[in-house]
Write a structure and sequence with these properties.
single chain; alpha+beta; 7-stranded antiparallel β-sheet; 3-stranded mixed β-sheet; 8 helices; 16 strands; disordered C terminus
């Protein structure tokens, strides 16, 4: 299907403000940060809250492309570039799963420097002088198209090879109030045991939140995508792939944590800029992606690298006990 994207031709940013609601009830659990907890902040309208950070959302958007059961790309996206990592002949990880994508130590920092040296030659890295941005874009398209969408910092190769996120998103809540509660980790065998060793009954406080509004903000930088200079076919692929990731995330699962499960407040997802642009359905995007991937197939590859280094344990920081006693997915910082 030939999806018409001409309404985006002269648009600098494609912006969405997507209202969300808790799937059940009114309480939700925001992301927590070490030594900070929930990230509340003040605005002229009152107290707001960062529910999900841009770096965490980038990871979630990447995962929309991945079939966890098969440890491979979803069939609809077969043909896009990415790097598989094998260990002792078995699957270990993939650039799609790695928070820093191509800059993953499993891809570049292992003792087998074959891929490291290869990509360094292709990038023609020099210590001084201007960076060839077009060459960098071509190499990223060839090996990991997701890096052109979600950003990458190839510090291990050149120290200056940096691409910012073109697709950025985060979730904020406005008019928030704390919903305090608590619980007890029960030990029915030895209720009065040594709690420092993990025994005994352990009471804990728990803070969740309610909000007047919860909004998923999305920003697709079309100027940056055009600035890669990769041509019309690659540009269309990048736009469609970004839209696919957003639609797949919204259609599938907005359960961010055990007690943080959202649904769309409105079935239609319409952009604020340009006004009236409606996010296509997943079926429409999949059909449009097939010829777009085929048109760039000779410029992309699925590369396999080997990581057989010994997995050494680093110095572990002192463990932080969660204040609310609940599981939480901490943010994994992406570098831009």
């Amino acid at each position: 299907m030939n999806l018409d994207l001409s309404t985006l031709d002269n648009v600098h940013r494609l912006l969405f403000e997507i209202p969300l609601v808790p799937l059940q009830g009114r309480r939700f659990q925001p992301t927590g940060f070490p030594s900070l907890g929930a990230a509340t902040f003040q605005t002229p309208a009152g107290t707001s809250l960062l529910v999900e950070s841009p770096q965490s959302m980038a990871n979630r958007l990447e995962l929309t492309c991945w079939d966890e059961a098969k440890q491979d790309l979803k069939p609809d996206l077969e043909g896009i570039s990415h790097v598989k990592v094998l260990r002792n002949g078995a699957f270990l990880t993939d650039s799609i799963l790695e928070s820093h994508r191509l800059n993953s130590p499993y891809i570049l920092a292992n003792s087998n420097k074959q891929f490291f040296n290869e990509i360094k030659r292709e990038l023609a890295v020099v210590e001084a002088g201007p960076i060839d941005r077009h060459r960098l874009s071509e190499v990223l398209l060839r090996y990991d198209v997701g890096s052109l969408i979600h950003g990458v910092f190839l510090e291990k190769i050149g120290g200056r090879l940096r691409v910012a996120r073109a697709l950025s998103s985060f979730i904020e809540a406005d008019g928030v109030r704390v919903a305090p509660s608590g619980g007890v980790k029960n030990d029915h065998v030895n209720p009065s045991g040594d709690t420092r060793a993990g025994f005994g009954n352990v009471p804990f406080p728990r803070d969740e939140y309610t909000a007047e509004r919860i909004t998923l903000y999305v920003n697709l930088d079309l100027v940056q995508l055009r600035g890669y200079g990769l041509g019309a076919e690659a540009l269309k692929l990048l736009i469609l792939l970004a839209l696919y990731k957003l639609r797949a995330l919204l259609d599938a699962d907005l359960r961010l944590r055990t007690a943080c499960d959202f649904a769309l407040a409105d079935g239609r997802v319409v952009a604020t800029t340009p006004a009236g642009f409606e996010l296509p359905s997943l079926e429409v995007l999949v059909e449009a992606l097939k010829p777009a991937i085929a048109g760039c197939r000779n410029r992309m590859t699925v590369r396999e690298v080997v990581f057989n280094d010994k997995l050494k344990k680093g110095k572990q920081p002192k463990e932080l006990e969660p204040a609310d006693g609940a599981d939480d997915v901490q943010d994994t910082e992406d570098e831009e």
